[in-house]
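Lecture notes, unit on protein representations.

Consider one protein chain, 309 amino acids long.
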Amino acid sequence: MKKFFLNNFLKIFITFLTISFVGISISRNFEKLVQQNLSKEIILLLILGFFISLLSLLVNALAWKELLIWLGFKEQNLRVVNLFLRTNLLKYLPGGIWHFLERFRTLTSSISPIQAFSSVLLEPFLMLSAALFLVAICDLKSIFHLLFLLPSILLARRWKGVLIMQLGAEKIMQFKRFGIDIVFSRNSISSNIPLTPYPLRAFLIEISFIFLRFYAFWLCLNAFSINNFLGFFEWISLFSLAWSIGLVVPSAPGGIGVFESIILLFIPNSLPKEYILLALLSYRLIISLADLVIPFLIVSVTHKKTKVF
């Protein structure tokens, strides 16, 4: 219970700290922000960014599907892409675990609990690995950036058991609070052998997801003509780093405040603050709208078709 309260206190504290930082930045540049006019070109770029964000969610779901296949998932009737997209909005509920719980409960109707648990547990680590991989390969100015390749190495089959044991302890405790008891041991994890030495297809698709997320951000930068203040690959590296930190740091769902704070801290001083703030606010708006819209689109499509994906 102490750990539970500590984690929630950290989430509240970090969220308050980062959103306050962004809020102070907005207040200092408020006059310049309100003077900006949204031209037709800006609106079109933001609309395009919104549709790119929708596409990125579909790609993210496909990456999870490939991860399930790598773990030995053979059930063809369960629509895992549909499941992923339907539950995506649940990540915004307090606690940040409801989307994991719903996916786990649905998967256990077709596969073993430990297999379902492994797929739910490894999905965010797959995202983190892909994002940090882009940080490393897009900005090789420092040899220390090669350390960002380590998470992607740990995805290999030979490290799967150790990785799940390390990641799963806290998640098991969270699940138990909701009455879900899983037999979680090294033997039970080792009994499930992935199909290939490395989840290459899932990893490459996840990289595509991160890149699409970045491209939506890039369109926001283009909308306010600030994309040239850094090189294209430098922007990818910075975006991926900020996105990764927003994923792992205890804070509000979606890394709200954390992502924006990291971008503001690492951008050059020469970049006009009011423009990067406009780009960040626009990006947060379009990805939040995409997260909100996609479950309703999936429900609508599901009603029209007997099978989706």
